[in-house]
Amino acid sequence: MTENIKLDTDRKSYNQVCPMSSALDIIGDRWTILILRELLGGSARFYELRDGLPGIATNLLTERLRRLEADGLVRQIDAHNTVLYALTERGAAIRPTLEELGFWGARAGRVAPAKYERSIRAVAMALQAILVRAGDALPPERMVIELEIDGEYLEVVLDQRPTVTARLAIDPDARVRTTHEDISAVLRGRPIDDSTFTRVSGNDVAMNTLIATLDWRK
After folding, report:
1. 146: burial class by Cβ within 10 Å (0-12, 13-18, 19+)?
2. Same domain, 189 and 129
3. 123 and 196 share a domain?
4. The pLDDT value given to residue 116
5. Which end of the chain has the smaller Cβ count within 10 Å, N or C?
6. Does residue 7 have a pLDDT over 80?
């Protein structure tokens, strides 16, 4: 667990009428966009957010969530004696923007650091950002693929409105396995080869369709 840090609680503003600067006044602080990224994968407990954001101080996460609540992007849900954080309708509306930002980041070609933090929800977000741009590679009929990444699972639904969710798939057409190292390389533009994915069960058509949709540099 990351120790608490000293916080600067005075909120700063660009003080401009530009809509972009207004957006950055709300989401421009460090960690804020990544908190939204995690919550786009579904509601989460505080410790689940903290665990999905290695390196964030506990009190900083508390402060960022408080601000997001005050701005109407995040709300708390009481569920069976626990508190869940979830996006409001306004907060969820940022999905296309963050998908575009993630795709732009992938195309930037930045070399992956030698050591990096892993987040299955981050992978889900990045995959969906690519899949929604797959165009003709997407199948006309719905396909469901369970993608196992080093013991964590994503449900990948391929159709004309593809989705990726951090959970076990229900009745998948194929179960496919890969590693965080390999999927990170694919997300950064490495060509997919025969060693990238391993079909565990199901049909080759579903796995080959997944590969085709992820070939985003073609």
Report:
1. buried
2. yes
3. yes
4. 64
5. C
6. no
